[in-house]
Amino acid sequence: MKKTPASAISLTRPPRGRPLPLAIPEGAAYRSGRAMPGSHPGPDRHEVGHAPLPLRRAGRSAHTAYRQGAIVLLLVLAELAAALPRLTGQDWSGGEDRVLAPVRQGDLVETFVFHGEMEACDSVQVHAPELQETRLVTIRSVLEDGTPVQASDTVVELEDGDFQRALEGARDEVEVAQAELEKVRFDLQNDGIDLELNVKRRELELEKARAMVIEDAIVFSKIELQKAKLGVEQAEMELKYAQAALGEFRQKREATLKVKELQLQQARRKIDIQQENISRSVIRAPGAGIVYKPFIRLNNEMGRIEAGKVVRCGDKLLELPNLDRFRGVSYVPTVEYPYLTPGSPATLTLTIAPDRVFPAVLESKEPYPISRNERLGRNDPEGFLKEYKVSFALSGTDPVFRPGLTFKAEIATVIATGCTFLPRAALARPNGDRATVWMQAPGGAVERQIRTGRKGVAFIEVLEGLRPGDQVCLDFPLEEEGEDEDEDL
């Protein structure tokens, strides 16, 4: 049988019903005495009744299949060998379809896009009242967003059931304290009468004892006289003790009455406190305007005020904005914050009116960042992100402006003027103010060392190494980490 040369082997798709060139024929598996995993001997067009090929013809078919597989493998390896320098970055010169970017001359302007909300420049804030002997209150009712109100109109009502019960308890305490005061006064009055009578008795006994002492009387013996004198001394001592007891009682009576009066005053003060809390449970509008519910922190939770929500005393509840002037507020990431300059022009596009663009100016930016946990109450890893607050001044007003409307802001910031710059994505190996780029040349892409200057987010200034109009490659091969270290070793 004539052998087919390797160059004549066709790598095209085989006819339907025939095995692929890389598949080992069933004859080879049959010859080796082992069945291929997941296969079974199939019929051949030379076989009759599904009988196996003779050993000689099966061996020739297996030999041909092995040669075909070897040739395909060699072709794949050759293709990989040709592509290896390009994949590893060695001797890369690009191709006809490489991605190029021009080196430009002019002002390096960066455009940033942020999202934010509209807020009124002037607004009257409504806070939860400072209540005595309580820290948390529950909202009973609140007006809806956009409700027009006049001065002294009720905008928020707080639950006052606890205050009403406390008021009843305070009134009971007043009655008890008043009754105790009257009882103490009566008891002290009786005790005072007894002590005063005791002093009177001791004074009479002293007079009587003194009358018994007669120095010149001959009817008394000396013993009787001495006894009478001792009686006088005893009466004087008892009178002294009675007067001291009366003085102490008077001091005690003043202190006891003062305590009971203070208890009564305290109970009456509780009535005043609860009555004041009840009156403050109705929050009224300080002026005319429309109601706006901001998304703020209420009792350590971010949200908007609604019925049944628990808030802390002093929490901001509502705003009554002035619709004459508005500004935009946005929070920008730390990375982009240094590139923003107050006075830069911007445009605001409202979410509800995407076909309208409003000119604005970056008015100010806060010097200190705030985390999303503080601003939005996020307790996940995103809450650790810090952002800076920036404000946009609008050149005019519009009837569509409302507090809380979301917008998209585009800011054009000049990083450098009259400079040469290129995309930062073209830098192959940046190292401080030095970098490598692949520049388009007549013979292909070549490496070029450059020195960089001021940097933006998307573009960077070129001080040396390139000229305006040069073309740099953006699809250069990326070097793996540690490649330079391996070359040095």
Description:
The protein is an alpha+beta fold and 489 residues long. It contains six helices and 22 strands. The protein folds into four domains: 83 residues, no CATH class; 73 residues, conserved putative lor/sdh protein from methanococcus maripaludis s2 fold (Beta Barrel), CATH 2.40.420.20; 74 residues, Beta Barrel (OB fold (Dihydrolipoamide Acetyltransferase, E2P)); 120 residues. The strands form six sheets. A six-stranded antiparallel barrel has the order 2-13-17-15-14-18. The longest helix is centred in the middle third of the chain and has 59 residues. It is elongated and about 160 Å long. The N terminus and C terminus are likely disordered.
Structure summarized in a few sentences:
The protein is an alpha+beta fold. The protein has helices spanning 26-32, 55-88, 161-211, 222-280, 372-376, 483-488, and strands at 100-102, 104-120, 123-127, 136-142, 148-149, 154-158, 282-284, 289-290, 296-298, 301-303, 310-312, 316-321, 326-333, 345-350, 357-365, 370-371, 386-394, 406-423, 434-441, 444-455, 459-464, 471-473.
The low-pLDDT segments are 1-51, 87-91, 480-489
> How is the biggest beta sheet arranged?
6 strands, antiparallel, barrel
Encode the helix/strand succession as letters: HHEEEEEEHHEEEEEEEEEEHEEEEEEH
* Shape assignment: elongated
- What is the domain tally? 4
* Terminal Cα span: 58 Å
What's the total number of strands? 22
Calculate Rg over CA atoms: 51 Å
The number of helices is 6
Please state the average pLDDT score. Answer: 78
